[in-house]
């Protein structure tokens, strides 16, 4: 079983290449009795994807494109998403365990009351997304992702790590972020700094936080005033 490690945070990856394991090609993610297991679902171009009360187990989803996606009460265990376009996704009341999102577009996505445990987002576009009451109950990594103007609202990211991400105008609005690892990122344009108590940074990032705080407080520098 492989892992992906960023400093102190290690995500356990899905085990889909074990000897003797075969993934059956499926043409739909709506399985009998709401369960799809040991599957491969690829290269689908859908107008809409609506899944509710569904359990996806041990599978690969590749090249999925949809104009509208609504996921509710979805449980995911050991699933890889690669090269998927799920922009404008609405995802609620779900749990995700041992999952990888790689090279995916989730721009403008809204995740609400979603629990994440051993989840990796790698090289994904999550700009303008909203994570509301999203809880990381196990390791969570964002690596080389774009999160411009993404909002984390009342989220719990205390077991998460960001690495080399674009966090321009990303906002943290309430929530729990103690021990959130923000090393290796430019923090100069973050918003909602009052929520980021007890996060982990490098000494060299302190000026970046000072810059972000000055912008958030909309301060005026005396050197710019005309005192005449």
**Mean pLDDT metric:** 95
Number of helices, counting only DSSP H or I runs of 4 residues or more: 1
Number of strands: 14
Amount of helix = under 10%
Query: Nearest-angstrom radius of gyration?
Result: 19 Å
State the oligomer: single chain
Shape: elongated
Protein structure class: mainly beta
Low-confidence residue ranges = none
- Distance between the terminal alpha carbons, to the nearest Å? 69 Å
Roughly what fraction of the amino acids lie in strands?
A: over 45%
Helix and strand sequence: EEEEEEEEEEEEEEH
Instruction: Let me know the largest β-sheet.
Output: 12 strands, parallel
Write the layout of secondary structure elements.
Elements: E1 3-6, E2 9-12, E3 24-25, E4 35-42, E5 45-62, E6 65-82, E7 89-102, E8 110-122, E9 130-132, E10 135-136, E11 140-143, E12 151-156, E13 160-163, E14 171-176, H1 206-217
């Amino acid at each position: 079983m492989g892992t992906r490690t960023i400093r102190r945070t290690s995500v356990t990856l899905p085990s889909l290449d074990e000897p003797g394991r075969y993934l059956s090609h499926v043409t739909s993610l709506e399985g009998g009795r709401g369960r799809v297991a040991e599957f491969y679902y690829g290269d689908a171009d859908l107008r809409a994807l609506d899944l509710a009360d569904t359990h996806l187990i041990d599978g690969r989803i590749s090249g999925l494109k949809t104009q509208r996606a609504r996921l509710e009460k979805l449980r995911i265990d050991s699933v890889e998403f690669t090269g998927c376009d799920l922009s404008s996704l609405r995802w609620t009341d779900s749990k995700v365990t041992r999952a990888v999102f790689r090279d995916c577009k989730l721009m403008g996505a809204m995740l609400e009351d979603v629990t994440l445990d051993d989840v990796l987002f790698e090289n994904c576009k999550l700009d303008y997304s909203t994570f509301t009451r999203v809880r990381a109950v196990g390791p969570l990594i964002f690596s080389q992702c774009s999160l411009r103007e993404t909002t984390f609202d009342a989220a719990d990211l205390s077991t998460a790590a960001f690495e080399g991400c674009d966090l321009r105008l990303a906002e943290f609005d309430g929530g729990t972020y103690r021990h959130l690892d923000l090393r290796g990122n430019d923090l100069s344009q973050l918003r909602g700094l009052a929520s980021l108590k007890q996060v982990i940074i490098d000494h060299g990032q302190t000026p970046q936080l000072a810059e972000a705080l000055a912008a958030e407080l909309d301060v005026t520098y005396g050197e710019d005033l005309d005192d005449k």
